[in-house]
Every structure is written in C-alpha cells, then in structure tokens.
What we know:
The complex is a heterodimer of chains A (807) and B (724). By secondary structure, chain A is α/β, with parallel strands linked by helices. Chain A has 25 helices and 29 strands. In chain A, the strands form 8 sheets. Chain A has a 7-stranded parallel β-sheet with strand order 3-4-2-5-6-1-7, sandwiched between helices. Chain A has a 6-stranded parallel β-sheet with strand order 8-13-12-9-11-10, with helices on both faces. Chain A has a 5-stranded mixed β-sheet with strand order 16-15-19-17-18. In chain A, helix 7 (154-162) packs across helix 25 (769-806), helix 20 packs across helix 25 and helix 23 (669-680) packs antiparallel against helix 24. Chain A is globular, with a radius of gyration of 29 Å. The two termini of chain A are 34 Å apart. In chain B, a hairpin with a 2-residue loop joins strand 4 (156-158) and strand 5. The model of chain B is unreliable at 214-222, 229-243, 286-298, 332-336 and 711-724 (pLDDT under 50). Chain B is elongated. Helices cover 42% and strands 11% of the residues of chain B. A 4-stranded antiparallel β-sheet of chain B has the order 1-3-2-12. A 4-stranded antiparallel β-sheet of chain B has the order 10-11-14-15, with helices on one face. In chain B, strands 8-9-13 form a 3-stranded antiparallel β-sheet. Chain B is of the alpha+beta class. The interface between A and B is large, with 64 and 77 residues. Strand 14 of chain A pairs antiparallel with strand 8 (264-267) of chain B.
Amino acid sequence: MRSFINFDQFFYEATGERPYPYQQRLAATQWPDTLWIPTGLGKTAAIGLAWLWKRFYLPSDHELHITTPRRLIWCEPMRVLVEQTANIMTRWIRRLDLEALPDGEEVSIHILMGGESNQSWVEHPERETIVIGTQDMLLSRALMRGYGMSRYLWPMHYAVLHNDALWVLDEIQLMGAGLPTSAQLEAFRREYHTIKPSHTIWVSATMNTQWLNTADFATYTNTLKQEKLTPEEISLDAVAKRVKAKKTIFKANSHLTTSNVNDHIKQLIEEIIAKHISHTTTLIIVNQVEQAQEIYKRLHKSLEHASLENYELLLIHSHFRLQERKRLEDKLTNQVTSDRFIVATQAIEAGVDISSHTLFTYLAPWASLVQRFGRCNRYGEIPDGSKIYWIDIEADTRLALPYEINELNKAREKLMQLTSASPMDLPTVDSAAPIRPVLRRRDFLDLFNTDSDITGFDVDISDYIRDSDHPPVQVFWREFSDTPSSEMSPPSREELCPTTLNELNKFKGMKWIWDSLTKRWSKINNTSIKPGMIILLNAADGGYNTEVGFRHDIHEIVPISTNTTSEHTMTEVYDGDWRSIQKIPIELSRHLTDAEQEAINICNSLDLNDEDTKAIIKAALWHDVGKAHSVFQTAILSCEEMSPDSNHNQLWAKSKCQTTRYERQYFRHELASALAWLQTHQNNNSSTDDSANNTDLIAYLIAAHHGKVRMSLRAMPSELAADNNRRYARGIWEGDILPQLIFGNEYLPPTELTLVFMELGTSDMGPSWTTRTYTLLEKYGPFKLAWLEAIVRLADWRASSHEQIQI
Amino acid sequence: MYKDINKIILTGTAPTPLASYLKALGIFRLLAEQKDSSILGSWNDNGFVLLTKIHRDEITAFFLKEYQPTPIIAPWNSGSGFFPGDNKSGIDPLTQANAARFFSIKNSIIQAKNILRQLDITKEPSKDSEKKALLLTTLRSSGDDSFVVWLDAAVLVANNKLMFPPLLGTGGNDGRLDFTNNFMQRIVELFDLDTGNPQLLTPTWLEQSLYGTPTPNMTKNPIGQFAPGQAGGANSTTGFEADAQINPFDFVLMLEGTLVFAAAATRRMQSSDQNNLAYPFTVRSAAVGNGGIAQSDTETSHGEIWLPLWHNAVSFKEIRTLFAEGRATVGRRNAIDGLDFARAIGQLGVDRGISAFERYAFLKRNGKAFFSTSLGRLESLRQSNVDLIANLDNYDFLARIKKLYKSDISQSIIQSINNLQEAIFHMTLPGSSRDNVQRTLIHLGKLIFALSRSHKAQENIAYLPRLSNEWLKSADDGSSEFHIAAALASLPNLKNYLLPVKQEGSMWVWSTSKSHYQMNYINLLSIIPNFIERQLIEASTSEKYIDIFYTYNEKNRASLADIHAFINKATDDEHIANLLYGLIWVDMSQPWEKTSPRQTNRPTWPLPASFTVLKPFFTSNILLEKIKRIPEDTKLPLPIVLCRLLQAGQVQTAVTKAWHLGHIAGMSWPTGPSPRAHQQNSTRLLTALAIPLQIEALKDIIPPLVTANNQDNSNNNTHELTAY
C-alpha cells in the first residue's frame, strides 16, 4: 500500500486537486449526520476519500478508524448517479493503488441497481466494501424485501447493509418516501444496536433537517452533527467562484397554458434560438418526457433552418435503453466546441456534471429548481454570468404533472422575488416535508419474518421506498416473425428501456410477456400490463429511436444491438438446493466439520464476542445434520455416479448427481437439523456445555441457514399431507428418524423427529418454535440476529466451495 | 414453577358472540402488556382461561385502578368527537384528564387535534378524498406506537387509498355508530379522570364483564355489529340506541380486543399488481366468485372472519404472532377468495394445533348497519380433501382460472369458474361428503369443456389438470353412475375425443387440431356410440392392430350390476356424462379401493343375451386372450358393421352376425342358432357394451375355451348359456 504524508497529499493523489477545508474536516473528525454543501464542491470526494483514508490510512486502533464502518453504502435516487459515483470512485481507487491491497484483498466497488444482481459483496463481510446502488435496491434490501433477488437471500443482504455500514443518502431532495424511511432505519439501528457501529449521512445541496423529523428519528434531530461551509470557506476564492457564480433570472415570454400547448412550443423554440449565445450550451429542462420529445423534434426542425454552422442537439430523459443512455452521457461530458442544445427532463437535475450558459426551465418545485440552477455557470466559469429563463405553467393538474399545483405555486412565489440564482442568493429550502407514509416500528419488526402470508402474499413495502404513482414498466425489442421463440435469451440490462404504462398503452404493436410457468412468451393486452413488468416488443413494430427514445408513434424498425449478453437472475425454488450438487461428493461429517472451521475463521476475522462466536460455531457444526434424513440421502444418491453399492452406509452432504428430486416436495434438511439439535439439547441447563444457554439461538441459526425456515414453522400451502394424520412441515414428518451420526466431537443418537414445536403453547419439548424465535428477536434485535444468521450461512458457503478446491 | 400460577376462568367470556370473543382477547392483551407479561391464555368450554402469577383480586384491582386505555380514537370519522356537532361527552373530559393512566389516550387526542388543525380539516373529509388519505397517512406517520396499533386494526391506507377491514366497519364506525366515541364515553362512565379511581358502579360492571355467566344468546347486551340482538324489543337493536343497555366494561374490553388484529398492505412478490388488504382470518367477500361465502338475496355480506379457538395455554406474544400469520389477502380482486381462504386457514389451524374456528359473517340487512352472525364452529381437522385441492392446483391451474376473471371472457366461463370454486369451497369444509368431491369433478369437467370453446381462455390455461388417483377414492359413492363413468374414463382415447386436447410429455395441453371432438356434452347415448365408431374408423386406416378397448387399468371397471342398472335405465345418464367429463382428468392407471356398491354385485335377473354375445367384441383382445376366452393369436376385432346395425336398431341381426363371427374365432359358445334378442333400445345397448367390464364379470359371461385342460370348467358353459 502506498504511503502518504497526510490526507491532503492522499486527496491530491486521487483527484489532482487540493481538498477544501470541509473535505479535510470530514477526514479528521467524526462523521457528521448531514452534509449540506452547494453543488459542484466535491461532496463525493469529501465522503469517499475520507472513508478510504479513515479505513486504510489511520491505524486500526485510531478512534476515527474504529468509528468508520467497514462498508460504505452509497444510496442514490437515480441510476445515472449510481454510475457516475461508481466511475469516479473507481478512478480514485485506481490512482491510489487501493485496488490490490497487500493482503490480497481489495476495496471492491459493487453496483446495485435494476439489472445488476451481483451479490459477491455479501460474501465477504470482513472486507472493506463500497456498495453503490439506487434507493429502490438498497432500501428494499434494508427492509428485508430486496427487489430483484432471491427472497431466500434477503436476510443476508439485510445483515450486511445494517451492520458495520456507513450509509450515504445522496441528493436526498430527490428521494421522496425513501428519505423518511432512511431516517427511521437509522433510528432503529441506534435503538436495537448493530453488531458494529453503523451510521447515516444525509447529503444534499438543499437540505432541510425538518425532513428527518420522523416518528422515531425526531429525538435525534436536535443533536445532529451538521457539516456545511463556514463563512471563511465561502470566501475562499475557489469556493466563492462557485457560490457566487453569477446567474441572472428572467421569466420566459412563453407560458404554458391549457389552451396554447401547441403555440407555446413554437413560441418557446423561437425564444430558445433567440437567447442562445453562440458557441455555448443552452439547456432546456422540461417536466414531462413526451413534452421533451416534442420540443426536441421541433427544435431540430427549426435549427436546420437556422444559420448555425455546426451545432449539436441532444435529448436526455429516462426512456432510453441503457446502451443509448451511456452514449448520451458520454456526449454530455464531451468538451463543447460548437453550439449545443440539450433538451432534458428532470433526469438531468441532479448529479450529472454539466454546465450551461443559458438555461430554460419549466416551473418546478423549489428544491428541483435549485438543482436545475446548478446546471448553469456551475463552476463560475462564465465571468459575465449565465442567464436563466423560467417558463411559467398555468395552475392545472395535468399540466403540473408530475408535480402538484401547490408545490409549483410556492416555487412561483419565490421566483417572482428573485433576480439572481447565484447559490448564495437562493433562499433556503424551507418547504416542510411532504406527507408521506412512514415506516413504523411495528412495520419494520414485522418485516423480519420473510414468510408470505397464508394466501401467498408478501407485505408491500413500495410505499416506503419511493414516491411513485405510476411505477414504470420496462420494454425491450427483439427481431422475430410471428411469435417470439421460447429459446430467446432473457433481456440484458442494456436492452431495457423504461417507459410509462400510459405511453405503452398508446403503442399499437403486439406486446409479449414471459410466462415462467409455461416457459414461453405469451401475448399480453394493455389492461393486463402492470407496473414493474418487462415487456417484449417486436423490433419491426417500432416504438423506439436511438435519438428520441421510446415513443409510441415511431414506426421505423428498432435497431437491435447484437451484443446482448444475458444475465440470469437467480430465482430459487423452495426445495431447490443447488449447493448440494457439486463436482466432488463430500461426506456429511466432513462437511459439518469444514463448516465449523470456516465459522471459526470468519468469527476470528470479524472479532465477534465469545458468546456469539460459540453459537455460530456450534450452529455451523450442526447445520446439515438433517441431511442424514433418508429423503435427502435417497435424492442425492439417485444417480449412477453415486450408486449406493459403492457408498455403502455412508452419509453424504454433497452429491455428484446433477439433478436431485426429493420424494417429498418442499423437503428442507435444515429443518431436520434444527429439530435434531433442539431435541437433543432440551433440558440440559445443568450441562456444562456453554451452548446450553443458547439452545434456541443455535436452533434458529441452523434452521435459517438457507433463508427458508426462519421465524415461523408451518407446512407449505400446497404441501401434501403426511400419512396417518401425522404432523408435517416442509417435507419433515412427525416420527421421521435421523440415523446416528458422529461428527467433530459430537454425537447425534438416532433421533425420532417431532414437529410438536409447530403448535401453539408449551409442550413436553418446551415452548413453540414461534415463542423461541420471537424471544430471540427481542433479545438480539433484528440487526444482530440477521448478522449471526448471515455468518452461519457464509461459513456453509465457504466450506462448500473450499471443499471443491482442496481435494 | 407452576405452583405459583393461578388458573382463572373468565366465565364472562365465550367464543360467541363476537363481542365476547373480542372481550377475552382484550383482557388477555391488556394483562399481558400492562400487568403480567408471562400470562398464558386458552379457550375451554367455560370461557377464556388465564394462567397467571397474579391473583383474581389483583386482576380486578388492575382493571379498576391501573388499566391505561389505549388511544382508540378515530379523528377521521364524523361522530368521532373531533368534529363540530359530535357528542363530546367522552372526548372533552379525556382531553382534560389529570390521572396519569389516561395520558396515553389524552396525548393522542391532543396530537390528533393538532394534526387536524395543521391540515385545516374542520369536518370529516369525504370517504374517498385525497384529504382523508392524507389525514390518515399523517396520523399513522406521527402517532404514538399504541395508536398505530389501533389505526392498523381499523383502516389501511396504502398507495393513497383507504381500505376498511370489516371487523371495524368502515374505519371504526358502523353506520351512525362511532365505536371510538362510545369507547371514550364509556371510559368516562367507568372512571374518575382526575383521580384515576373507578366510579361507584364500576366494580360491579367489571365483575359481570369478567365472570358473568354467559348466555348462549346475549340479547341483552347488543354492541354494534359485534353482538347483534334480535329484531324488536327495547334492548335488541343492532346499534347503540338510546335505551340499549350495555355494560360499559364489555364495550371497552371488546374494542381493546380488536387491537390484536392488524391490517397490512400486501402484494405478490415479483408482480407489481396493485396492493391488497390483508387482515387476520378475514375474507372480504364480493358479489362474484366468493366460493361459498355466505350470501343471500336480502343480505349483503361484508365478509367473513374465522376466529381461532385454542386449548393450549399460550402467551400473548404467540397469539399476536398467530394473528399476524393468519393474515389473508383475500379481497375483491381475488376471484377465489373463499376457497383460498378456507384452504389456507385450515392448514394454519392444523399446523398450530388450533382446535376449531368460530366462523362469523358480517352481513348488512336491508341496507342498514352491519351485524355479525355466527355461521357455526369449524373443527380444525386435516381434510384429505385439502390434498385433493392441492393436487388440482398443480401447475397453478386454479390460479390461472382465477386470472381469467380479469380478462374479458364469456359469462358462461365465469359462471363455470364460480361453480367450480363453490364446489371446491364446500370440499374444504369439515364434514364434506363424497358428493362434494363429485360436484367438484363435475364442475371441473364443465369448466374445461367451456374453456375448450374459447381460444382466449386456452391461451391462459396452458396445462390441464392431472388429478391423482386419490380423487377416485374420495368421490366414489358406490353408485353405478360413478363406477360406469370411471370405467369409461379408463378408455385412453376418450379424452381427446371429447375435447380438443393432446398429451405432450406428461402434460395434457390444448390441441389445435379441431378435426373431431364431441359437441354434445350431455347425451351419453350419443357420445359413446360415436366415439366407438370414430375409433373403428381410425383403427381401420391403421396398418397395425389397434386394441381400442384397452383400458389404463384392469381394475377400474364396471360391475355386472352397474351394467344391469344402466341397461334397465336405472341410472341417471346425465349424471354419468357429467362425471365422465370430470373423471377423464383423473389418473386411471392405478386401481382404487371401491366403495361397496349400492346395488348387490350379482344381478338378480339375467343380462340380455344380446349383451353377452356382443360383449366379447367390445373387450380388449389382449384381455380376452389373457383370461382364455379366445384362442392365442386370435383376434376378435369389432366390425364396424356391428355398431352400425346396433345404431340402426337391428339388434337381432347384430347378434346373429356376432354369433357367427365368434364361432369362427373359436369361442366356446354352444353350437346352434344365435340366441334371440329382446326388443330393446339398441343405442343404449351399444353404449353399455362400450363400458369396460370387470374381469370377473367377463369371466362369468364369456365361456372359457374348451381345451383338454379345462374340461372341468365346461359346466360353466351350460350355466352361462342359461343366462342368455
């Protein structure tokens, strides 16, 4: 690892610039709760580099090192910001040579957004990790209902996102319902405690701490540590240049009313061309995608007739495929050499690092306008200043979309008073937080249970993730004649184009959806299309143009990128157990001791307390004893390679058989493991074995090691009953016998399993499963319990993969 | 440890009426949360039983002097006390209360008033207004945790929409009656708000409420929808009329009990359907497709609730978890609500060792207020039928037909779906009979037949059901109709004759070839003869021999008695046809243990000679050979002419021809002229002949081959011939 004299040198090495004082403060003091810094003054560097500095360059016993969580969770409201933050962090890490650390471990950056489903970041909780993701992906995971992932991995993601994690909530003015959720989560973390300190920093140029005043976080808002520019910093040249950048505000002549929609655009375009300053950029920010497309189209025509020699016209909005969006973003960041016009929606509001001479913007809520003003004379690079023209909108619900009339009215009032939009002249954001559903304690604790309700439904968390009246659908195009082939690969992230239900409904071409049950594409009509669906369209039917994006009335053939690598997202069936299928068969007793050893290793590297460590190790040692169950053994010996003749009397944990099918549907070996543990460790309080105090915790950790048997224990809805009216759940039947097993220093006698724990109340075997698990949840709190759960699972995963390598 | 535990039976509580059940939950909850967290509770015949470390007099003292009322307030309802013109006799004193035990409710009232002021709300916002959603969102976002528990019991606000669980009417009121305002008024009646002490009569009310002898029909204490009285009489209105006599403690504890229920917004994972209301043990019923949920013309059902009764002593924490687990997402958009609900609840009940469910419907009579009515108690037993339904639901068949509701599909299919769901629902109820299983099979058959007429429907239902053999056992009522239908369903080619379906691997799917299939659903006497003729035509074009009477299984065949009944028109042919359309979806490859037939096995009168002579031609040749009724390597094909003769009513000609052919084939019939055929319905005879017959019966009516080895059996010939 390279050494640096101090943070300044470190910072310079990474960015090529000297840090501002506030950036130095972040590296030299405890983390603040809020960071309120005008746009363009390096917030990303401030936090990212301070985190790297504290984690890697401060001694491990340094207070600031200790209070700096191992994981940096960067939560962004938009995909474009995720990409941007990831790019810049990667660049700095490369420059600092932190990619490959001496111990062979590296600071890894992981991206979490729709279509990116890599999960290696959860597999190494002992390593420094940066996770950058959209609020949908990160908050849904923090609520134990992760979007776009296997539900059985929810507890793992939850564990690593809450424990030992520094959450950076970026551009919070754009987060909507996600903001109060983040505040509530921080309150819960403070109250229920995490295994190692976690912390949240809310970041914005336009911050109002009242926004954080939620039911449970309100007690902390008076004592928030707030970081912002000091008066001295503001007067530093470099800062002043930005903060005092000259931006003059005018009201545009054109004005959108319900009666002049068409004329208005014509008038607006004339105005745009008239106010454009040659060889500079004019940015036009619009509130609706369709409106942006229309302005783009007509501006394009007008510019052809204008006297400009060499101009560039770009359209930026969210309804593009990723492949085009990337190209557009590249163009945006190119040096401007000619006359440039950019028509954009609010997709460009935050983060994207561009600056313009002339800015046209429709009326928008004040917080949005502040962001938009940041898109001109951003660095104070224009000595004469930039000009901002705001376009008024008549108070009409439809015209105001996606905003509300009264938000616009308030913003208009402010604009009327203003002549300068220089950051220092802008009034603070005083708007109260809009009323949003707040995640309450009971909601949050309820979510710890990952089972569906008895009718197969899951608790809906979307109200707590983001504001969205019309969550978008995604479409993609392929070439096919009549019917898409069922062999067609699933869409890659690059191919997906977001759009609205409304726009898609207007599109006349045939729409197809993948029917996972019949494994084929089936037609879907407009009324059946629901938010969140991924819809296939025929490239021949049009609907897309690489310059304009999705639009229902485009009839040209949609170009298909040949380079579409498909990413299969893993969806696991309930009785799936792919980890038990390996190249090299492994005996059960060996796998158990291997997992024990891995658990010891992980606990050592994580420096856990003795009691937790003992429970984790014991659970790892016992986690798979249920594989001795005949249903499991029969299934994994059901191929020639594993024929019983050659494996007489051996019990196996991993099999070479490529397909295993349990004779009992929904069979879960981990339930058998947990029952065997519980039954052989009842009433041994007098035992000297330390684990006796932790019987229930160990039972839970054993049961939960696939994320499939957790808080509650009941049969699956379509599980077939056991014979003779026996109790049954998840393929385990009352009276099933596990054969004796010797493993490590343990002995499991032949054990007749009972499911009496399913039933309410206390039996001869003690309290019910529910009582035990909910008592654990109370005792450990959700974060710690999930963490312990995750470590046992990791020990199992690592043992499984090391076994395959070591032999 | 148990020696210090007191067993206290709350004889003032009972599973019925609903109010009394809720009261028990209220007492249990309050004691667990405010007095003894280790308290256990269970139901027995005498009421709710508490196991607690506190004594009976301590319980009394708790409710009189310590109990802190939950903030059960509804600032979103007119009549709640929060709006001008409302009765303020409860809310005003509580706002001024000085005793600490009322601070929780007091503070919540004050906070709610502030929120109303901030939002500038001075009267009840109209029901579906954004303002109301906004108000509820604000209240839920900022209220005290215990208030949130109450709010979740009364109303769900999700995606800016309100949904009301039926238990608490429309958000804590019921017509003109606001539960919460009454709650506050009762608190004021019970306690001195300055000192926190009970009023003079309060101890008596408490004693009656906790230990009063329950009456099976509590007509004297009507409490809104929770304990409907009978019509007429001073104390028997459904709501709180001025002269209704109630025990204030009953009312208070009952509402405290509703907090065990909490709504949640749910949706299916991986789908982005609109979210739904999930509520413990509750199904909200709608007019269509509510599979068995109580409904009649004069009453509108607002849903049902099935309340668990358990005998094991259980902590309140566990009960709270049980009620969270018992949340069911069943609402207007879910077509087969009643069915899914019954299945799901039944299973949870079995898993958790719940002994029974008390079933209530919320009905609206004559457009007036809702009331709850007990529909009786359901013992929680594992029904083998639940497995049958799970089996029917393989490949998501039920979910897929449910989806059809959403597409625009013909009314007849919708009706068929409703009928099927209704039938399935009845199968799930305890005491369900074989009739219920048969009805399900019949409606399944009818539905699939209806689907076969709709391309649109077929697109949605790709895979057709494959019912396990268990269905036979559960549906077999011993009737000839059933046995005949099952025997016919054992003919492998019948299914793709009746319907445009084909087998793909192990699955049955729709076939696009529509060249031939039966259009006439009901008339068995036309279906079967046409099927035979079609088979013969196909066999005649085939190079190799086709054994068209081969059956999936040699055992699933009809008896002579069944055939007798059929030939003598003692069977209900329509019923057979109906059953047949259902039974073709059952796996016939395995035999089932038949229910003893209703008729005796042996016919008491002889079968017509025409049947016995013709039957060998309508029997699998392989089988005939196996039971040694035709010589080895001989074939006894059915000439199409025999069928046509029978179709034409020329039974005697057919018998004569068969007699001749049989002899040629070497059958051991006596020599001489053919037996004489009686005048009879020849189509019925033809149909009867096609019904696969039990092997024993075949052995009885067809003489064995006369060989050197079985001379002894030759007597049988004589015996059988007398039967002609």
